[in-house]
Amino acid sequence: MEEEEQPRRGPHFVGKKEELIEAKRTLITVGGRDILVLHHQGVFYALDCYCYHSGGNLQNGDIEELGSRLCITCPKHKYKISLAEGEGMFKGTDPTVKPPVAKWYTKGVKQRVHAVTETNGDVYITLSDDRCYIESDYYQGEVGKERRAKAAAQEKAS
Ligand code: FES
């Protein structure tokens, strides 16, 4: 089905489950939005492809468990983002706890995540309908795309 024929939110066909598992990470564009669909430890996740911090591409980010949440690390400046919720994570200490023990805390939802479903071996995503602005939205818009392109050109030139 052509992208234009599909409803805005979806579900939008991503691919065959087995192929996506083999690929592990797949970048798709739905309604002008670039989304990373990844398969990790038996679960599919979908999130905006560009990091909320400064537009880094998350496609090759490492995945690890931090504070009982699976997180992807942005390759650009190493920010951590939980895969299931899109929360920005940081390590800190609670000064009221003695002795202080560093642990992972959330900054709240920073990266837009999308629902993934499977039907008869086909995988679909349904775009998030959260109408609140989420920081990763910036890098999906025209201004954000220009900024990403400018940063990529500067990196290439240096
Ligand atoms: S762009 Fe992702 S951590 Fe800065």
TrEMBL record:
SUPFAM superfamilies with a match to the protein in the record: ISP domain (SSF50022)
Gene Ontology MF annotations: 2 iron, 2 sulfur cluster binding; metal ion binding
Superkingdom of origin organism: Eukaryota
Keyword Metal-binding: yes
Sorted UniProt keywords: 2Fe-2S, Acetylation, Iron, Iron-sulfur, Metal-binding, Phosphoprotein, Repeat
InterPro entries found in the cross-reference section: Rieske_2Fe-2S, Rieske_2Fe-2S_sf, Sol_Rieske_ferrdox_dom
Domain Rieske as annotated: residue spans: 11-110
Pfam families, alphabetized: Rieske_4
Keyword Phosphoprotein tagged: yes
Protein name per its UniProtKB record: Rieske domain-containing protein
Organism name: Takifugu rubripes
